[in-house]
């Protein structure tokens, strides 16, 4: 039986301890397809997803940030701001928002498939671009280390600490 979306969202937590086995290609394909289906501003789809699996490139990432948590693979979520919609009222590009929506969709798909992940912004984007020889036109916005959670992995103590709605929602 499929779980309700609200249950899926409540169960998802940031996994920081991974089993060493890689995610199977068919499972990865489902995750990437879910990202492809995510909405983007004006459906321009400026996202660029890089799947890092080689030991050499994972080592380069680990030299830039310790926040890969020794995951067997990492998604680098990027977008090309030149292909993104620009808000005519404030001049802001939708690239980062589009990449974020794609990342969130993939993280929730991972949860449904029993794959753990965590959203990482603790890295120098320019160093990532250089180390992995990413195109100049793309901007890395987040890393998603992912894989099967280790058997001793648990949510952080802060996972269930949520502000009440009256502190985050206003009715106008």
UniProtKB/TrEMBL annotation:
SUPFAM superfamilies: FMN-dependent nitroreductase-like. GO terms for molecular function: oxidoreductase activity. It comes from the Bacteria. InterPro entries: Nitroreductase, Nitroreductase-like. Keywords: Flavoprotein, FMN, Oxidoreductase. Its cofactor is FMN. Residues 12-67 form the Nitroreductase domain. Belongs to the nitroreductase family. This is Nitroreductase. It comes from Holdemania filiformis. The lineage of its organism: Bacteria, Bacillati, Bacillota, Erysipelotrichia, Erysipelotrichales.
């Amino acid at each position: 039986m499929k779980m309700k979306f609200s249950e899926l969202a409540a169960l998802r937590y940031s996994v920081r301890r991974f089993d060493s086995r890689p995610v199977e290609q068919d499972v990865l394909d489902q995750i990437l397809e879910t990202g492809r289906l995510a909405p983007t501003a004006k459906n321009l789809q400026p996202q660029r997803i890089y799947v890092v699996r080689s030991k050499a490139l994972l080592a380069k990432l680990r030299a830039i940030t310790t926040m890969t948590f020794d995951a067997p693979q990492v998604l680098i979520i990027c977008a090309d701001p030149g292909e993104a919609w620009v808000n005519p009222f404030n001049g802001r590009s939708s690239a980062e928002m589009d990449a974020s929506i794609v990342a969130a969709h993939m993280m929730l798909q991972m949860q449904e498939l029993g794959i753990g992940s965590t959203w990482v912004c603790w890295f120098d984007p320019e160093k990532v671009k250089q180390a992995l020889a990413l195109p100049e036109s793309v901007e890395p916005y987040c890393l998603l280390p992912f894989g099967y959670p280790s058997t001793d992995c648990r949510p952080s103590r802060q996972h269930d600490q949520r502000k009440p709605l009256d502190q985050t929602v206003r009715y106008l």
